[in-house]
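Can you give me the bound-state structure? Components:
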Amino acid sequence: MKLPIYLDYAATTPVDPRVAEKLMQFLTMDGSFGNPASRSHKFGWQAEEAVEIARAQIAELVNADPREIVFTSGATESNNLAIKGAAQFYHKKGKHLITAKTEHKAVLDAMRALEREGFEVTYLDVEANGLVDLNKLEAAIRPDTTVISIMFVNNEIGVIQDIAAIGELCRSKGIIFHVDAAQATGKVDIDLETLKVDLMSFSGHKTYGPKGIGALYVRRKPRIRLEAQTHGGGHERGMRSGTLATHQIVAMGEAFRIAKEEMHAERERVAVLRDRLLDGIKDIEQVFLNGDAVQRVPGITNVSFNYVEGESLIMALKDIAVSSGSACTSASLEPSYVLRALGLTDELAHSSIRFSIGRYTTEEQIDHTIKIVHDAIGKLRDMSPLWEMYKDGVDLGSVAWVAH
Amino acid sequence: MAYSNKVIDHYENPRNVGSFAKDDPTIATGMVGAPACGDVMKLQLKINEQGIIEDAKFKTYGCGSAIASSSLVTEWVKGKSIDEAALIKNTDIAQELALPPVKIHCSILAEDAIKAAIADYKQRHGN
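Here's the bound-state model for the whole set.
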């Protein structure tokens, strides 16, 4: 078996070979390399046609109108454009925004930037299962609330928020609802005809497309307007200037087409593998699943192994590519803010591992992973003073630790 | 994070992992760190009547650098008198293991563990 085993599909996915093949047709002299904005010749027309096909493919996956899709450089840019663009455009209506503490940094930091511009932001606590309580969200709404941003699928723990219900609430109050759906495409059914969502962010590389490409859904009925964040040639109906990256756009379109076609079969296959993994590690003592056990995508499994430390665990798991928290924060020594928001103790937050399974994961890889996890936990617990104390019946909460 | 070969060696083949009986009068125990900070080290020294460290064992909850720092310390203290062991500096540990700046606290913790064990010994032996 080829090692290390890739189990970090939530960080990024490999480009599907069918997608890569498409992408390469839009680069060289032999291909359709033209600028889609060139109106005066065939090179431009061909590229424009390819972009429009891709736009339709993306719209189809989420049951939207192609005219509602704006291409960006990725979900981070989409989140920034949606949140800042809407907050700024509608600032005369109010300057209060709401999001949750477990959102991606691209949402949280965009909110922080708006705070520096004079907006007020409520960062909602989530429940211990990672889900937003609708009543608490409703209670946080003020007369001057203009934008609410809640993610579809959490990148660290995989829980699925009740986007339909939150959408109804927002619509009834006349509040713009943005959803970061980077981890949701190809994983859950998304129907923007029924969901009362006004803005939705998508990523290419989380769904077997290339990095550096994303999209933002901007609802037409009722029409949502945005303050542009990137100014220039007025591309994408003025919302996002910059020459369209034809090859990446075509690739994202193809990736989303495949996602639509294969999503249900893939979800079932991934769920079988996930169950196999959970079954294989369930006899290890003191293992906890983070996030709601039911309302979750099968691809992301976040577990805490009590009394072992996360970074040493990652080292012990060197033959499997997993992450501790999200890739964006794993360089720091802080435990995951998402797990902290669920109310996990520091120990449990420090010893969490995210296994994310995807299109190319095999049964053999899962079986090998189970073996590696057993060995690693055994070794590290033999070395852990906390495990020893737990086994001796010492209440770790009663110990007077010396913080450093 | 890229670890030095020495850290990886100590992590993969930790020296002197284990525990001595706590109530043995020749055993001194130092436990430092906090789970909230992501590392806890327990260092135990077996000290003879002449004040020489005959043996050492450790258990560490922490990152690879923390495990390597404590593993290294158990090797270094053996054969030393408690006064000599007290002179081991975190900078020596950090240098030996080529710890990156963000991991210096692991070496500090290892030095603290030696000091805590020695303090435990002195307290128990009335000095």
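A couple of observations. Chain A touches chain B through 26 residues (CB under 8 Å). The longest strand of chain A covers residues 300-305.
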